[in-house]
Amino acid sequence: MARIAVLPSDVADQIAAGEVVERPASVVKELVENALDAGATTVDVELEEGGRRLVRVSDDGLGMDRDDARLALERHATSKIRSASDLVGVRSFGFRGEALSAICSVSRFTVTTSMVDGAGTCVEAAGGAVHDVRETARRRGTTVSVQDLFFNTPARARFLRGTRSEWRATSDALVAIALARRDVRLRVTADAKDVMALAPAATLRDRIAALWGAGSAARFLDVDAVTGPIRVSGLAERPSEVGTASRRTALIVNGRSVRDLGLTRAAESAYRTALSPGLRPSFALEIQLPGDAVDVNVHPAKAEVRFHDRWEVERAVERAVRRALGVLDSAALVGAGVRTWHAPLVIGNDILPAPLASLPSSGGGVPLFDDPDPSGERHAATTGDVVAVPHLVQLRRTYLLYEHDDGVVLIDQHSAHERVLYERFTQQMSGGGASSQRLLMPETVHLSPRDAESLEGHRDALSKLGFELEPFGGHSVIVHAVPTPHRRFDALRCLRETLATLSGDRGATVHAGHELLVATVACKAAVKAGEPLLPDEMAALFRALVSTALPAHDVHGRSGIIRLTWDELDRRFGRR
Predict the structure, then answer these.
(1) By C-alpha distance, which of 186, 184, 179 is closest to 209?
(2) pLDDT at residue 563, rounded to an integer
């Protein structure tokens, strides 16, 4: 007796439908994308009971004649491709009619369409079987009505959720399309109530303002960068706003809204050391790349894509977002559009208030920081502009204060130095390593078992940072050479504290692997709160900070810069 048989066409259709049609949101997505592929400029969506009872999508696109309207319900029917080679670099959302057969097989289905104003065609079907084709009046375009979804597959119908849940899923699908196709007018009604009315928008920010309000749009930074053939543009949330509202993300690849965990992680990784642990930013990013570099046909519902060189795309996304954050941080440090300060740089203690002028100098007057640009001018890393050093004053041996046109700025000296050292150490890790200073008398360091285990896991990385270590039996090591990031650096203390952090649970969730090591060493090596700084040391720190990519945040994601405007100060003093 034969055990293998060819399935009946109606069963095969229902199986195929399961790949494309998961819930009403899937139907809405397919029908709206079909409308857009047909050249629609206006799309109306009508829902009842979250789409379980009715989904109706009307457009003003090209429409179809009688023969095409009937053929569109057949499996594998399409107007977009003729051969396998047409699949490479395809730019459409899908192929006109591709999903209609699957949707029709699990619903009561009606399509009304016309290529010209006036005479049109109406095709009615149910469960995949066409039972009426007739002429009707309609303006140019197409209307597809899907009623009683899964009426003939009750097992699947039972998995549908309530009206509110199904509407949320449908709303998410419509928002994703609205962000990708901002040139289209989109109107949505749910149970006879208007719930969305979007006019064409000139920019992504305008579309977000229309969807979520002007306040939400203001939370985002502009992203725009090109890496080779890949352009990444869009919006990324300001670090200071992350966590203050619901998280929203959107990824658009060559005009197609997609889900991609790798790209999401790449965007989030740009915020590392700019956000506190556990916070995840919102963003809406558009990735443009050559059509032959991405395969859009790997997912039945066209929700995912495959890249020819995924690493290159993810790197481009991370770089673009990090560049936007760097521009923001640079503006926070030096003031938007402000590159000149009223007060010149003055070297010497005579500019400090008496309590500070009496503080002891570092190392007998030797500056704490190496300053490769003592002339007082340096190019900001993110803007390319020349930045002069303002008149800096140290407060409470912890904060640096200066004045610019818009108000006053406070810099946390530890956070600033931590950021500078973090970027320096990161470059050393990816390059040839750091120079080190050999000790006249090698030091023996005794470690706990956990710290010794941590040392073994990071020995190579520590070597790149400048630590020359030799095992000395048990859990002890001999330190022959140490890095010299600045003249007050306590290398042995830094080593012990770094290993303790790496072996404990406290920092394990903040960074991973060597990134945690670099962040920890930077934190332990940075100048501390309560340490006095000479004017030339403050100036050198300021110049180094301006040259970093993310000067406004320390490696833990905390803010290192606070700006107080003159208006705010005037209000506090009752002048306004």
Answers:
(1) 179
(2) 82
Structure tokens at 521: 């060493």
- β-partners of residue 458 are none
Which architecture does CATH list for 207-332? 2-Layer Sandwich (3.30)
The DSSP secondary structure of 228-292, one letter per residue, reads TTEEEEEEEE-GGGTTSS---EEEEETTEEE--HHHHHHHHHTTTTTS-TT----EEEEEE--GG
Pairing of strands 377-379, 306-307: unpaired
Contact (CB, 8 A) for 356 and 398: no
68: CB partners within 8 A, 6+ apart: 79, 97
Nearest to 75 by CA among 115, 15, 141: 15
pTM for the predicted model, two decimal places:
0.66
Calculate what percentage of the chain has a pLDDT beyond 90.
Answer: 40
Residue 232 near residue 317, CB atoms below 8 Å:
yes
The token duo for 307 is 């890249």
Phi, psi for 203 (deg, rounded to 5): -135, 165
Burial-class residue 278 by CB neighbours within 10 Å (0-12, 13-18, 19+).
exposed
Residue 295, Cβ density class (10 Å: 0-12 exposed, 13-18 middle, ≥19 buried): middle
Alpha carbons 23 and 173: distance in angstroms, whole number: 11
- Say which CATH architecture domain 335-417+530-572 belongs to: 2-Layer Sandwich (3.30)
pLDDT digits (tens, 9 = 90+) for 471-520: 988 889 999 999 988 887 888 989 988 888 887 654 443 345 577 888 88
Q: Domain ranges for the chain, please list them.
A: 9-198, 207-332, 335-417+530-572, 436-483+489-525
Contact 98, 125 (CB under 8 A): no
Considering the four listed CATH numbers 3.30.413.10, 3.40.50.2020, 3.40.50.1820, 3.30.565.10, the one that applies to the domain covering 9-198 is 3.30.565.10
By the 10 Å C-beta count (0-12 exposed, 13-18 middle, 19+ buried), 477 is classed as: buried
- What DSSP state is assigned to residue 85? G
